[in-house]
Amino acid sequence: MAKDHGSQIKDDKLYEDLRKQGESKEKAARIANAKAAGTLEHRGERLEDRTKDDLYEEAQEIGIEGRSKMNKAALVEAIRNHK
Question: Where is the composition biased (Basic and acidic residues) (predicted)?
Fold first, then answer.
Protein backbone atom coordinates (compact mmCIF):
# COMPACT_ATOMS: atom_id res chain seq x y z
CA MET A 1 0.00 0.00 0.00
CA ALA A 2 1.25 3.44 -0.87
CA LYS A 3 2.21 5.83 1.89
CA ASP A 4 -0.24 8.70 2.45
CA HIS A 5 1.50 11.88 1.33
CA GLY A 6 -1.23 14.15 2.65
CA SER A 7 -3.80 16.20 0.83
CA GLN A 8 -1.19 17.75 -1.48
CA ILE A 9 -0.76 14.48 -3.42
CA LYS A 10 -3.93 13.10 -5.00
CA ASP A 11 -2.53 9.75 -6.26
CA ASP A 12 0.01 8.45 -3.74
CA LYS A 13 0.88 5.24 -5.62
CA LEU A 14 1.60 7.03 -8.91
CA TYR A 15 3.62 9.64 -7.01
CA GLU A 16 5.77 6.94 -5.39
CA ASP A 17 6.23 5.10 -8.70
CA LEU A 18 7.38 8.30 -10.40
CA ARG A 19 9.81 9.08 -7.57
CA LYS A 20 11.28 5.57 -7.88
CA GLN A 21 11.80 6.27 -11.59
CA GLY A 22 13.86 9.31 -10.64
CA GLU A 23 11.36 12.12 -11.17
CA SER A 24 11.67 15.16 -8.92
CA LYS A 25 9.17 15.59 -6.10
CA GLU A 26 7.62 18.54 -7.92
CA LYS A 27 7.23 16.74 -11.25
CA ALA A 28 5.94 13.53 -9.63
CA ALA A 29 3.34 15.52 -7.66
CA ARG A 30 2.27 17.45 -10.74
CA ILE A 31 1.79 14.30 -12.81
CA ALA A 32 0.06 12.36 -10.02
CA ASN A 33 -2.33 15.24 -9.33
CA ALA A 34 -3.09 15.81 -13.02
CA LYS A 35 -3.78 12.11 -13.53
CA ALA A 36 -6.09 12.03 -10.47
CA ALA A 37 -7.95 15.12 -11.73
CA GLY A 38 -8.32 13.66 -15.23
CA THR A 39 -6.41 16.52 -16.85
CA LEU A 40 -3.35 14.57 -17.93
CA GLU A 41 -4.77 13.41 -21.25
CA HIS A 42 -4.25 16.72 -23.09
CA ARG A 43 -0.57 16.52 -22.18
CA GLY A 44 -0.26 13.65 -24.65
CA GLU A 45 -0.22 16.13 -27.50
CA ARG A 46 3.07 17.14 -29.00
CA LEU A 47 4.23 20.33 -27.32
CA GLU A 48 4.68 21.96 -30.72
CA ASP A 49 0.98 21.40 -31.48
CA ARG A 50 -0.19 23.32 -28.41
CA THR A 51 -0.83 27.06 -28.29
CA LYS A 52 1.69 29.49 -26.86
CA ASP A 53 -0.84 30.45 -24.16
CA ASP A 54 -1.23 26.80 -23.14
CA LEU A 55 2.54 26.35 -23.03
CA TYR A 56 2.89 29.54 -20.99
CA GLU A 57 0.31 28.27 -18.46
CA GLU A 58 2.15 24.98 -18.09
CA ALA A 59 5.48 26.81 -17.70
CA GLN A 60 3.87 28.91 -14.97
CA GLU A 61 2.51 25.81 -13.21
CA ILE A 62 5.93 24.16 -13.10
CA GLY A 63 7.76 27.36 -12.17
CA ILE A 64 9.91 28.05 -15.22
CA GLU A 65 11.74 31.33 -14.74
CA GLY A 66 11.79 33.92 -17.55
CA ARG A 67 8.75 32.46 -19.29
CA SER A 68 7.20 35.87 -20.00
CA LYS A 69 10.09 36.70 -22.33
CA MET A 70 10.03 33.34 -24.16
CA ASN A 71 8.59 32.68 -27.58
CA LYS A 72 6.72 29.44 -28.33
CA ALA A 73 9.87 27.52 -29.32
CA ALA A 74 11.66 28.57 -26.14
CA LEU A 75 8.66 27.55 -24.01
CA VAL A 76 8.60 24.13 -25.69
CA GLU A 77 12.31 23.69 -24.99
CA ALA A 78 12.02 24.86 -21.38
CA ILE A 79 9.08 22.56 -20.63
CA ARG A 80 10.74 19.61 -22.34
CA ASN A 81 13.96 20.09 -20.34
CA HIS A 82 12.32 20.85 -17.00
CA LYS A 83 13.30 18.30 -14.34
Answer: 1-29
Question: 61: alpha, beta or left, given left = phi > 0 and alpha = psi -120 to 50?
Answer: alpha
Q: Exposure of 38 by Cβ count < 10 A (0-12 exposed, 13-18 middle, 19+ buried)?
A: exposed
Domain ranges of the chain: 12-41, 45-81
pTM above 0.70, yes or no: no
Alpha carbon distances (Å) from 21 to 3, 35, 50, 56: 17, 17, 27, 27
Residue type, 2: A
